[in-house]
Amino acid sequence: MSSPFGASEHSRSTPRSSPSRQRLSGSRSGRVNGHSRSSHRDSSANSNDGPSRQLWEEFGRVVLDDDRSFKRSLDVQTAEQERLHRIALDEALAHHEAVRQSAERARERVDLEIWREQRRREEVERKTVEEQKRRLAAEEAEREEEHLADVRRSQEQCKQQEARKREKEDVERQTEAEKQRLEREKAELLRKTAQEKEDADRKTREAAASRERELKKAQNPDPPPIQLQPKTNGVTPTTTSKAPTTEQQQAPLASAAISGLVSNPEQRKAVHQRYLTLWRRLKAFRIETEKQCKDAGFKNLGELKRSINTQVGMINKTDKAANKTYLTKIEAIFKQALSIAGPTVDIREYLPSADPATLAQATPADAQYPAILLYLLHQFAKRTIRQLIAEGGADTEVCDPIGIILVQVFARPDYQWREHSLIDLLWAKYHFLCPQLFGIRVQEGEGEEYFRRVTGLAAGFSAVTLRDFSKSRNRNPAPNTLWWESTARILNLSATQTQMTHFVILKASITDFVPRILQLFGGAGKAVIKNAVTVFPGKAAKVVPKMQGEKAGMAPAVMALDSLSSTLLLKYGLSL
Description:
This protein is mostly helical. Helix content is 69%, strand content 1%. It has helices at 9-13, 19-29, 39-47, 51-217, 246-259, 265-295, 301-313, 320-338, 356-361, 371-392, 399-410, 424-433, 448-465, 481-491, 500-510, 514-535, 556-562, 564-572; strands spanning 344-346, 368-370. The chain has a two-stranded antiparallel ribbon. Helix 10 crosses helix 12 and helix 10 packs across helix 13. The relative contact order is 0.05. One of its GO terms (cellular component) is nuclear pore cytoplasmic filaments. Belongs to the GLE1 family. Its main location: nucleus. One of its GO terms (molecular function) is inositol hexakisphosphate binding. Residues 1-54, 121-252 are annotated as: Disordered.
């Protein structure tokens, strides 16, 4: 199809073309809308001014309309594209603005964090500086306090020296006055003794003279004395000299032991109360000594106490060499306590078994004893008792090495006062925990834990009191008569006075100590064992049946003691 603005050669040369096509071709080659055309077009227009012209004009309008529509569509597309571009630019600008604001906020947050970190560092530095200042001030105050404490300590020492000096002078004056008083009393006593002797001689002479006069007045002389001889089943045995048996040789020892048992319940209770008073006094003494050491700046008291507890807790029944090492370390602690210049106490208040005359003769200065050593000896006694209860209650053989160490410590002359042992510290705790060992009847406890405690204490009592000091240079702090007295007082109880505790005590104090009992007491010791094992269980009350069909019988503690004879036969070959 040809362009409407120019006619092709083919259209102009074709004779068959219609007039309208020719006009159309002519219109394409000429100007439109009344503009000048070629002369041929003008002549044609003039000759054909009819429908073809209208068609041509209409076509021109269509073409113009198409052109305008095309331009308008281009304008619309351009405007739409511009609008879209502007929208995209606005969105990009908004996004850029959002990013910029976000970056701004992030920058503000970073600035805030930096500011906070700076403030925190400044605060830490400020606190560090203040802490250093406070530490320096505290150190300065501590140094000042130590200086003041040294000054006060020096002043206190001077006061104590002056007080000791005055006390020494007072003691000397008192000693001199006491000496003079004793001399006067001695002279008075000698005079009274002489007077009493003279009066006694005079009375004796008068009585002899009176008897002589009565004899002269009597009509019948006195009959001759009758000699009584022991009889057996009506037969008078002949006197035959025999060599003394082993039982006869041991009789003096048994008699001497039994002679010490002559004491009534009131006397035993009085002794028991003295030991309970000592037990209470030791509690107050412990608190006071710890306070005095703390005030004096002595901080090793707790460490010494813990060392003693550690060594006592390691004592065992198998390693004797290790036990000697533990004893050496314990005595080293006591020697260290002797070398410490600490407070002192009047030891007379802690010796209830000492001779009252010896205590009365001692002056307050002579009776002073190192408080730290007394404190550690008390802690040693308490710790060994706890060890006896904890381990000896389950295995009584453990008690023997503990008893050896206990006796060896309290037998040391270095820890005694005027050759008197401080083992009363141990017995005070014993009187509190198990009074039945000393002939005191109290309300007994119940349960397995109670009887285990009694077992450990009784076995420990035998381990301490059945030691042989015949080859030792030291004096036995726990004489064997203590064991004899305790056992005999239990065996002498009536059936109504017995308690389960007594049966537990007898079994624990005999089972592991038969060789020692026979060695120390001989035949008398065997008689005591036989009485305890075969006779004493018969004093126990029968257990009342609690269920239908149950038979009356012995309590477990009594049965254990009653069956001990077979155990002794198997273990020691001892036939009762």
